[in-house]
Design brief:
Helix content is 23%, strand content 28%. The chain is α+β, with helices and mostly antiparallel strands. The strands form 3 sheets. Strands 5, 6, 7, 8, 9, 10, 13, 14, 15 and 16 form a 10-stranded mixed beta sheet that branches. It is elongated. It starts with 6 loop residues before the first strand and ends with a helix. The model has no long low-confidence stretch (mean pLDDT 92).
Length: 310
């Protein structure tokens, strides 16, 4: 049985006598689910190199280690596809995703995804990992994408997301002129009962909060910086439409007054997707325990759109 490199914690003097389970959950922040999983393996939990039960008391200076079994994504076909890697270490792979690429294989899309490319990349590098994206980006949205290499890292960042501690910032090119250059949209979102694949603002929906600030105002459009408190499906696209400023190129959530305009027709010739880019992702790195931010530059199609709008 092969394991990833262990996570290590040295018990300080003030924690002598703590129960090992407390150390694992409160200091290493191991979830109950993951703890149940690793304690069943031979080298999952050790103290000073010896396998231990989680109800023992620890002593000052004890070296607590947890190990997770190596995993692979055997159901994902490796493919030699281009990857724009922003950062990679033993815990995480951070990519700049291109627009038009699906993150994970789905029914009818088994190849040409980010997952296929990542599995191939790891295979060539001799890295044994299961493909675990820690968040989602729509197929036509470009930008920063984080992939966890172990269950622990995935759990750590997922927990930060639940606690609204992850910073996700987007750049969007939207139609119209703004009266207020910054604001917050706090409107619940749910499926459209007549079109289940479409989301709408509805009082019966799930809480959704979007903050925005105008970066550049053009004659009939604007570049807007957006950051989220929640992560509902299509949240930015739905909220900006609700505000009266749909994303340029967004055919699903456009408005009639923009859909039929000459500018929209010309923009449609220049851009084949909604003008949304996830340019920044920040969180506490599970390995270093330090705040870390990753940025993806504006892709060529949106840079060209910006130049045209200017």
């Amino acid at each position: 049985m092969s394991y990833y490199e262990p996570l290590v914690y040295i018990v300080p003097p003030e924690e002598e006598g703590f129960i090992l389970k407390t150390v694992l959950q409160k200091r290493l922040m191991v979830s109950r689910k993951l703890l149940s999983r690793i304690k069943l393996t031979e080298q999952g939990i050790t103290v000073n190199g010896v396998r231990q039960y989680i109800n023992i008391k620890v002593k000052a200076g004890d070296r607590v280690e947890i190990r997770m079994e190596e995993e692979t994504s055997e159901d994902i076909l490796p493919q030699d596809l281009p990857l724009h890697i922003l950062h990679e270490d033993e815990h995480l792979l951070i990519l700049a995703k291109e627009a038009g690429v699906i993150v994970h294989p789905t029914h009818g899309h088994y190849v040409n995804t980010i997952a296929n490319a990542v599995v191939y990349h790891w295979q060539q590098a001799g890295i044994t990992c299961r493909f675990r994206p820690v968040h989602r980006l729509d197929q036509e949205t470009s930008g920063v994408l984080a992939i966890a290499k172990t269950p622990y890292v995935h759990q750590q960042i997922s927990e930060q997301m639940i606690q609204h501690q992850v910073k996700k910032e987007y750049l969007a090119f939207v139609w119209g002129r703004f009266t207020d250059t910054k604001g917050t949209i706090n409107e619940p979102i749910d499926r459209d009962p007549e079109q289940p694949h479409v989301r709408i603002v509805t009082p019966e929906g799930y809480s959704a909060v979007t903050h925005y600030e105008v970066v550049e105002q053009y004659s009939q459009a604007a570049l807007v910086r957006i950051w989220l408190e929640t992560g509902r499906t299509h949240q930015i696209r739905v909220h900006m439409r609700h505000l009266g400023h749909p994303l340029i190129g967004d055919k699903m959530y456009t408005l009639p007054e923009f859909e039929s305009s000459p500018d929209a027709a010309e923009a449609g010739e220049r851009l084949t997707r909604q003008a949304l880019h996830a340019f920044k992702l920040g969180f506490v790195h599970p390995g270093t325990r330090e705040w870390t931010e990753f940025n993806a530059p504006l892709p060529a199609d949106l840079a060209a759109l910006q130049a045209w709008l200017q």
